[in-house]
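Write out the 3D structure for:
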Amino acid sequence: MNYLFRIYQWLIAAPIILVATILTALFTMVASLFNRAWAGYYCTILWARCFCWLFFIDVKVEGRENIDKNKSYVFVANHQG
């Protein structure tokens, strides 16, 4: 099964992500001329969701209810889990 997933990664997912990365970068550059906040936020979210979906990455968010929407935060990823 691991070999099939590696073949899928290199032959299907990687080329799609490569094209999506180039298109997202170009679209973000053009869109940022009109609305920087929108382009820098939504274009990258769409790219990240596409990346996670293609590589079967499950994103789990814990503790979202503890975040105060009126405050600013800095998030640091812990890659040990």
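The chain has a mean pLDDT of 89.
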